[in-house]
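Reviewers asked in the last cycle whether our approach scales beyond single polypeptides. To address this, we selected a multi-component target totalling 683 residues and predicted its structure end to end. The input consisted of the following lines:
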Amino acid sequence: MRVYIEGVGLCGPGLAGWAASRPVLAGAAPYLPAPVIAPPSPLLPPNERRRTVETVRLALAVGKEAFDMAGRDAAQTATVFASSGGDGATIHQILETLATPGGEMSPTRFHNSVHNAPAGYWTIAARSRAPSTSLSCYDASFAAGLLEAAVQATVEDRAVALVAYDVRYPEPLNRARPIAAAFGTALVLTPGPTAGSLARLDLVLRRAAAGAPAMTDAALEALRRGTPAARSLPLLAGLASGAARALALDYLPTLEIGLSLEPAARAAAVGPARDAMAAAR
Amino acid sequence: MELSGTMQPLALSCFGVATSLGAGRAATLAALRAGSSGLRPSTLDHAPSPIYVGEVPGLDAAPLTGDLAAFDCRNHRLAAMALRQDGFADAVAAARERYGAERIGVFLGTSTSGLQHSEAAYRRRDRATGALPADYDYARTHNTYSLGDFLRASLALAGPAFVVSAACATTGKVFATAARMIAAGLCDAAIVGGADTLCATTLYGFRSLNVMSEEPCRPFDAERSGISIGEAAGFALLERPVAAKDGGGVLLLGVGESSDAYHMSSPHPEGLGARLAMERALAAAGLGPRDVDYVNLHGTATPVGDAAEDRAVSELLGSATPCSSTKGCTGHTLGASGIVEAVFSALAILHDMVPGSPHTRTVDPAFRCNYVVATETARIDRVMSNSFGFGGANCSLLLGRA
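The resulting structure, written as structure tokens, was:
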């Protein structure tokens, strides 16, 4: 499968946006972890903005960044949202309320608890009636989301945005499901090269072999191992390097996704003639 | 007939289902023919009252054991019950022989997953430390993917897998995912479907939204007063029609997905997203509005939702096509409603039946679609099945006679 990356969004500890993070991921600047700040999205109307939770803020922030870079109309673009679990604080509060005699459920908390809450807010914010899928594959949620997004782009021949995010759970759930830090990333994928293509990405589903490469920086490697959405870091580091890269992402126990990344200038030159012309315009 | 759609038809070569109507095809068919309802006054602990629920009996006494013991929770017990029906697990084993374990995908849906198990764990927290019980296994019970992990382990499958959770549209949407994965060559066959169980989170949650009825739900009734919730599991094996050895005689012809872009928990009042999903399903199948013989409606019996769907369906398909919601039979099985109603739609095709709508007495006189209250006999070649959910997630399936 072949897709093209047109936009990137990133929000993680010490990784405040793609432009600021690129030198860090390329190894040209030191990684300095810092608290994650995902502000309420300006895309939402004020009454909806007030009610958003951490997963929604993270997903909307990285989604907007990727679409801004791609210069693509979010209202017309299908989306795939990938996350290991829902909003940690919301789920904990609901479970605690239900375990308390006389506890009253909040309707806003209830709708924020569904796995597709970020997708719902995104489609409202982007005024998008395009298809949207929300999925989970535990630690491999990013790999599964990338697979679904790439398959949609190639089979349906349409642009697809992948938004992956995870947040920490409060105690006592944190001990049952430790997640290192809040982390979100987004990729706008197209089926052919465009004027805005950053890189070409070839994907193959194959039997697990080498596995994902470790990040050179120990703290980034801890982030990658500790947060499902941060399993995207080897791909993002490859993209940041600006060089051709071959790597793998861990998927299910016996499967991995082999990735081959080619930076944009060469990607357009070796793409199909029809699409290369489109890219040249 | 020549189809010119964008989707290659796939065979539903086997399916298994368990709802409050019963487990398996024979019990389900008999109940649909008789117009029975599985809704009963709730006797659940930790649930609001008075309400009616569609509970599947026998789950408390059927724990998962052996290699699967770590997955034990109500949601997976219900999934296991559906897998045992009508030779489903044997059909998957035969498909595994034909294609290889790595060539069969598992694309399932759930909205509750094992929430009920986590609710119980929170009631057993250590009073001093607040810690969850030592036997609590988040990854294999609560996490949304645990259902996919459970099925892969139960059926010895090793192909691509994940679990879609898009509220009440989720087990419709997995048909689209599976069809794309097969079209992309990532697998030769796929298990689709899922499970959702009764739990305090959904029962109190929907009550907090003031959409729960105190009586058995009455879809499309002039006096409808909200939803009743049920639990269910269902699975189907999808593969290319030429490969389906014991073809069940039903094809997946098209899937349409859309988003409302309107509100987190209310449907678009004019049914715009619903209409888009139906139009896209027709386009994927290369069919027109007149080709649909029956619509299995989402029809949850909320005042707003039924009105929006009536508008969308009658504007797109006209007022002649027979329509009904089977939520009065099973309750709204939330994340499982897509697969449950796909199975009911398959049964409608295979057994020449338009399922009726128990508890509906007087169809809302403002409605324009041809709503069927009592089960009818009719030849049905193509069915549209609608599933709409929170977050404005919409999905419409088109199934047809092979």
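The CA atoms of residues 29 and 347 of chain B lie 7 Å apart. We regard this as preliminary and will revisit it once experimental data from Aim 1 are available.
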